[in-house]
Design brief:
By secondary structure, the protein is an alpha/beta fold. The chain has one domain: 2-Layer Sandwich (Double Stranded RNA Binding Domain). Helices cover 35% and strands 33% of the residues. Strands 2-1-3-4-5 form a 5-stranded mixed beta sheet, covered by helices on one side. Strand 3 and strand 4 form a beta hairpin. Helix 2 packs across helix 3. It is flat, with a radius of gyration of 22 Å. The termini are far apart.
Length: 166
């Protein structure tokens, strides 16, 4: 019985290794230091800076006086959240909102060479609304915004990792 379990687990491990499965690794960036132009109050900018530094290979500079020490500059052109009414009932009460997060940025060197031209990432989610559950809907809205923010940060990190030379 133990031998059968061992053989089955070994076969499962072998099949995973044969399919090319590998855990996601920290990306390699072409730069060692980056100046982040995100506002101090931006939760998206804070999460982005934290994720950049988490790999241990990149130092994020936030102080504009130290910008000369950076290899590249991340210019945040737009960081915006929107909430739009998309559905109402017969009596004119709101039934559905659309939440949208826009983030526009560019990556350049100190000399002005564009490594990533101005790019915009827009994510949107629909959320139903019910006046009898306002507090629960506010919490759901906050969770949706946080999910969109994390998704945008991951997309930006992949784009930064795609830059191969400065």
């Amino acid at each position: 019985m133990q031998r059968r379990v061992f053989l089955l687990s070994a076969a499962a491990a072998w099949s995973l290794s044969a399919c090319g499965f590998a855990l996601r690794k920290a990306p390699n960036y072409a730069f060692k230091t980056i100046y982040s132009g995100a506002a101090e109050t931006s939760t998206l900018g804070t999460e982005l800076n934290r994720n950049l530094e988490a790999g241990g290979t990149v130092k994020v500079i936030r102080d504009a006086r130290l910008i000369a020490q950076a290899d590249v500059i991340l210019d945040v052109l737009l960081d915006q959240r929107e909430k739009t009414v998309v559905g109402i009932n017969a009596s004119g009460q709101v039934r559905e909102f659309q939440l949208r997060t826009r983030f526009r940025f560019q990556l350049r060197t100190l000399k002005g060479k564009l490594l990533i031209p101005p790019a915009e990432i827009v994510l949107q989610r629909d959320i139903s609304f019910n006046e009898s559950a306002v507090l629960a809907k506010e919490t759901e809205e906050a969770l949706l915004y946080r999910d969109m923010q994390s998704d945008i940060v991951q997309q930006i990190l992949r784009r930064l990792a795609a830059v191969k030379e400065i």
